[in-house]
Amino acid sequence: MSMLFANNLKKLRKEKGLTQRELAERLFVNRTSVNRWESGSRLPDFEMIFRLSEVLDVDVNILLSTASLSDECPNVIMVDDRKLILTGGLPILEEVMPDANIIGFTDAAEAVEYAKMNRVALAFLDIELRNTNGLDLCRTLLKINPRTNIVYLTAYSDYSLDAWGTGASGFMLKPITPEGVREQLKNLRYPLRSGGEGA
Asked: How far apart (Å, rounded) are the C-alpha atoms in residues 133 and 128?
């Protein structure tokens, strides 16, 4: 991996006076992800580099010039319009899938744009979202990539029947747990593998 990128990111973060945890919170990722980027053991994907440029208020080309973008790891997204849910859920996904690129979104439109630019292997979607719902978001993501695995997240089991009609792989009641995520991974339509695609 690129140590040039790692060192540049660490320098830019410190210049902004941010800790790894503070940067992670602004990006909706786990602090472990930032640590891995700064240690050179993993590179962020294209969309995350753009997010980094916005948070660090730096020209994106400065970051892109020091990074060789990689698609070695599956891209996993979590969409929930409540930041608190993302803050609690992303570390669990990172724990269960340490080799995946995991990113959270509070805005469904941003998740769609990400999916257009990156192959999403697995999406955890809240069913009740502002301006849309997880069922419609599922249909949109599957139009972009029919091999995206979808797992719905909700606090209400009433939605389960509607959810099954959308081509989803699974359904989880909140709050998510490591055991629950592992159980869902066993039942994916397209099992995850290196490279970010279904098997």
From this structure: 5
Could you tell me the residue ranges of all domains in the chain? Answer: 3-64, 75-186
Residue written as token pair 């009433």 = 158
CA distance 54 to 1: 23
- Running DSSP on this structure, what letter comes out for residue 191? -
pLDDT, residue 160, reads 57
- Measured CA to CA, the distance from residue 44 to residue 49 in angstroms comes to 6
CA dist 78 and 86 (Å) reads 7
Q: What class is the 3-64 domain?
A: mainly alpha
pLDDT tens sequence across 135-179: 899 999 999 999 999 999 987 666 555 555 667 788 888 889 999
Q: Which residue has the higher pLDDT, 98 or 123?
A: 123
Which residue from 1, 127, 13, 149 is spatially nearest to 75, judged by alpha carbons?
149
CB contact at 8 A, 144 and 138: no
